[in-house]
Target: Ribosomal RNA small subunit methyltransferase E
Amino acid sequence: MIRLFVPNDLSAGAGVVPTVDQSRYLTSVMRLSVGAELLLFNGRDGEWRATLVEATKRGCLLKAEEQTRPMTLGPDLDLIVAMVKRGRVETIVEKAAELGARRVRLTITRRTNVDFVKLGRLDAIAMEAAEQTGRLDVPEVADPEKLDKILDAWDPARRLVFCDEGGDARPMIEALSGTTGPAAILIGPEGGFAPEERERLRGLAFVTPVSLGPRILRADTAAISAMTLWQAAAGDWR
Amino acid sequence: MIRLFVPNDLSAGAGVVPTVDQSRYLTSVMRLSVGAELLLFNGRDGEWRATLVEATKRGCLLKAEEQTRPMTLGPDLDLIVAMVKRGRVETIVEKAAELGARRVRLTITRRTNVDFVKLGRLDAIAMEAAEQTGRLDVPEVADPEKLDKILDAWDPARRLVFCDEGGDARPMIEALSGTTGPAAILIGPEGGFAPEERERLRGLAFVTPVSLGPRILRADTAAISAMTLWQAAAGDWR
Model:
């Protein structure tokens, strides 16, 4: 069944006016007619079965009928990723939604050579991926920040899993086995971290350096593999 | 350092004429001049340091100097993936190269609704990804075959890891823990496997059904996550 994210509060009988794009998708692409059923979620009220009660040229009106799933959030995982080429950042955001990250934080490191990103487009990708993957929230995509600033403000209760290409870190699945609590995964830019960044990271008590195997991975591959292994070792794939 | 895949035999002093595209890449894109060093591999003779000995408008001549790494192959892993949209198949082939699959086999299932794929383009993607990821071979991309035909001819010594969306399979990392020997991962099309396909797969002695978590994954995400978990549990990420 079609799932749509909407910002509205959801309760029995609540009317929901979808955006122009969503209305067009429902009636012109998916060809729903009045009476058709779909699912709605808003990140707060779980998932609701809804019906299409009105479809005009100006848009649709939906009505929430009954809750199909109570609100739950996935495990508390952030993904922090150095800005890379647009196509790869878009892939990363899509996959973060599918692999259950709560938040994607873009970061600027010494060797980051991409300085522009269309946050609106990334939000749209996160929303569409959340609709398709079945989760009840949409991951937030946070504005780019400098890595040093992120580390300065770090809450030490959150483990930072540092994907370290340096070579001597333990395999990720082994390093994370039995760990619990909130976490974040840090993925560097295509050129890797600068030596001084690596040194700072490895000196921080909340950082767990991990290895992602013997081959060189692109940033999007590293992000997807790391989120997968975290879910398998410490998240909701157990 | 630049790495190039070449079909030629590699030995000390061997001359190698790269393709027109490779020559253009070396001299026009990377701006190498005579005397510059690069690395060559051919899938048989390991990796060799080579020098650019001639660069004319018509092309380059390279000379293999000395072996830098002896020939090794990664673990014996195939990826069998139902044909999906072009962009996603291309992502899957690129990631199979990075994640150490030896071979990508395209398959046609009951619900596969894509019937065309440019194999030449997929080979080029596999080659470029192999060059960048540092492996010593290029994964083969095999012609599409029907799933039933693949299963009819299966060598039972190879474990078939079936990514089953049916819900009751064990988590992949747990189901594969301690397994050894050759393996293949099977990923279905966007619409999933048909009930009769799933039934056949679950009845075969060489099949291990596994689960990839509670969310619905696109085919490319499932392929990347499954290769990652296989490498972590049974491959060279341990």
